[in-house]
Design a protein that fits this description.
By secondary structure, the protein is an all-alpha fold. It has one domain. It is built from 3 helices and no strands. Helix 1 packs antiparallel against helix 2 and helix 2 packs across helix 3. It is 70% helix and 0% strand.
Length: 66
């Protein structure tokens, strides 16, 4: 949310792009039970969910940069 705020209110385009990438990555991880933690009806642990989010960030960033 801070990155989104910086992008909109401070005109920092990179922050807005980073916010978008992070949001998409988090949504992707939350969409799959195997990458969600048990408290949100998933089967992963915290490390597994974090790894899924980081992998999705890398994939999204790769798509943006190419």
């Amino acid at each position: 949310m801070l990155l989104e705020w910086l992008g909109h209110n401070r005109g920092i385009a990179e922050a807005l792009a980073a916010s978008s990438i992070m949001t998409k990555a988090t949504i992707a991880a939350l969409a799959r039970p195997e990458t969600r933690t048990g408290d949100i009806r998933g089967t992963a642990n915290t490390e597994g969910m974090t790894s899924a989010i980081v992998a999705a960030i890398e994939k999204e960033a790769e798509n943006v940069l190419t």
